[in-house]
Amino acid sequence: MLSLEWLANARGIMQKIEETQLENIQKAATIMADSIEKEHWVHTFGCGHATIPVEEMYPRIGGFVGFHPMVELPMTFFTGITGQMGIHQFLFLERAEGYGKAIMKAYNFNEKDCVWIFSHTGINNVNIDIALRAKELGMKVIAYGSAAEAKGKVTRHPSGKTLFEIADIVVDSCVPAVDASVNLKNHQDKIGPVSTLAFVTLVWMTITTVAEILADRGVKLYIHPSHNVPGDTTAQERLDACLAEYKERVSRV
To answer: Each residue of 101-145: pLDDT tens digit?
Structure first.
């Protein structure tokens, strides 16, 4: 069954992440914890399906204040496939030189912030523009993606560098370059991508590590509660506290 083949591939990715990426996850989480402890931000960015890990962080039950999503609608919302904000426009924008610089102009940053970028290939201009501008502003850049598979790939950016060559910390998603993982008879292209599963796995391995570091330092976290549990009479109060804290902090961005 191809469903079980995909499942085995997904488990294999998760196992490889556990075996090879824990040290770098710890390094990345420490940088993030340092920013959040000072009430600064971990700015998060991705485009295409790499916005899914960004959206997974916060607001999210079990997530906490400290992660600021920079999500651009034309690079995220293309479920129309064709027509307005379709795939053709998205592919153009993620490769357009200077678009990432324009995105960065929309926010106020602090050198005590850090930037967390998701990119499967690390070769497209928008991610690289954001990483380079972040470093110019004194922020640490953390990149998650298929770094080992990207070695030898030609970047589309005029700097001549990939995202993984620019970042201060790289965590490898351990996903094959083609992303899709299951052969289908009578077809050239594979089905069953695994990069989204890898990214979401890495998100929660990282964020739980950040939370552990901050809790050990005695830092109070504003954790987004479940508001769907019968009998929890203070969930709304805790949620309001989270959103108030987020609103106050994000006003500086």
So the answer is: 999 999 999 999 999 999 999 988 999 999 999 999 999 999 999
What does the H/E/C string look like for 155-170? Answer: CCCCCCCCHHHHCCEE
pLDDT in tens, 73-88: 888 876 777 887 788 8
To the nearest 10 degrees (0 to 180), the angle between helices 195-216 and 22-37 is: 50
CA distance 27 to 32: 9
Count of H-run helices and E-run strands, the chain: 10, 7
User: To which H or E segment does residue 104 belong?
Assistant: helix 99-104
- Return the residue matching tokens 């085995």: 8
Interstrand relation of 180-182 and 169-172 (parallel, antiparallel or unpaired): unpaired
Identify whether the C-beta of residue 190 lies closer than 8 Å to the C-beta of residue 180.
yes
Q: Is the dihedral of CA 141, 147, 153, 156 positive or negative?
A: negative
Vertex 184 angle, CA 183 and 187, to 5°: 110
Q: In 3-state terms, what secondary structure has residue 64? A: strand
Give the C-alpha separation, 81 to 89, whole Å.
10
**Which tokens sit at 18?**
């556990």
Residue whose entry in the numeric block shows the structure tokens 């916060």? 58
How far apart are alpha carbons 236 and 253 in whole angstroms?
26
Quote the tokens at residue 54: 């960004």
Annotate 120-151 with b (16+ C-beta within 10 A) or e (fewer): bbbbbbbbbbbbbbbeeeebbbbbbbbbebbe
Length of the chain: 253
